[in-house]
Amino acid sequence: MLSDRTKSGIERAPHRSLMRATGMSDEDIRKPFIAICNSFNEVIPGHVHLNKVAELIKAEVRKAGGTPIEFNLIGVCDGIAMAHHGMKFSLASRELIADSVETMLSAHAFDACICIPNCDKIVPGMVMGALRCNIPTIFCSGGPMAVGKGRNGEDLDLNSVFEAVAACTAGKITEEELHFVECNACPGAGSCSGMFTANSMNCLCEVLGLALPGNGTLLALSEERKELWRAAARRAVEMALQGGPCPRDLITEKAIDNVFTCDMAMGGSSNTVLHTLAFAAEAGFEYDLHRIDEISRRTPNICKVAPSSRFHMHDVLRAGGIMTILAEINKIPGALHTDLPTVSGKTLAEQMEGLSTQDPVVIRTIDNAYSPDGGLAVLFGNLAEQGSIVKKAGVLPEMMVHRGPAVIFESQEDACAGILADKVKPGDVVVIRNEGPKGGPGMQEMLAPTSYIMGKGLGNSVALITDGRFSGATHGACIGHVSPEAAEGGLIGLLKDGDIISIDIPNRSITAELSDEEIAARRASWQPTMQEVDGKWLKRYRKLATNASKGAVLS
Q: What pTM, to 2 d.p., does this model score?
């Protein structure tokens, strides 16, 4: 066993003495050591119940013949960090989490690991750390939140609150109506209930083979979720004794092809691109945006979930879950690599065998797809020479092609104030820059400004581009991850108010209508603009961060 490094032989008596101080017996020490990599905290709704989840998992590990050893990691709540200085720390926290997983697993010689994430950067941070250590690892997240309910029985989620803020400032609803939405949109523990970043990543862990089927869709507080956690615990002990599979056995180029195929089919968060590129970097191979776009062009979008539709994660579960989406897409010859292993011990093909949609309104058949191509699109042009990302599934038909004057904001905070103050008019293209990994630093999410655009009734007439990124809850003609970013000399940093921006999503282009001579003249006098930051961590992050086309990993 890997743990013999710390516990076997007379020279390890001091080590065993310390283990006994934590409550271990001789029998405990003889068993495989199973790391319980938890992320419980009382800040994030998706993590507030994970202390109880860990207790359930540890009890099952003991029953299965392992010795569970828990440690906890940090986690940022993107919703609470949104639209203020705190959001600068969200993406950066992914690197801290990856480093922490690597540190704990490397220092203590575990035989296997059970990762219990749920939200936003915690999932990818744990995956990155697990790839570095490459011991048998299984993911079992905390699960999605149930939907809230409005006065008329309509579904509510966190995005409903952001849009209600803008509606209230526009006089469309009262403060009392806003307060009702605030109090009812998020009814309890779990990751926010739409196909936002957290749920997108938890679903894609199933596709990668890192998690058991149901990881992305079984509701956080359901009895079925408890059985998933127990099954993961039992499987972790088996994997420890068998020596695998390990993360690098699972996360290969073919597996990432599958991830993006599923992502396109289900219209996942644009942040999935950022994180999956980081997985490739940690696994030791290159995977670029052109390959993602090729997959997007050939994969139909057969499922739309909030914010792109009225459906939520419980609807996807009811319709059959992620394996059913894959089974439907697999009807297209060559769409998936189905012979890949998973932590279940079965291949991907075996996991989805015999499945079909239980609700063709939620998970459509391929001959009734929303569109013949994927829910995410990669745009290139002089404004994004290294690429940019748009959640195409959330764009209205009339905004697929848009041309308009730029309205420049130098930060997200300025943009929020400007949109609420009616500085943005129908037909405009909002440009939010200096928000990339280096410029921000930290590549803030832009849920607030995009929600304000929607709340102001401008969603069918205004586009937004940024070198920052968007929340998975964002919808509309919102193009992020613009690379190169403003801070490294990208054209987005040279734009002026009134410059005409042309966006053509079907043809994958984003351009500023400027001559080469004008661009050269502006570049000659350009000076980088980076927002001031306090604190040592963000300064270190700025020095090391790559741009979004590289997954914003540290160099």
A: 0.95
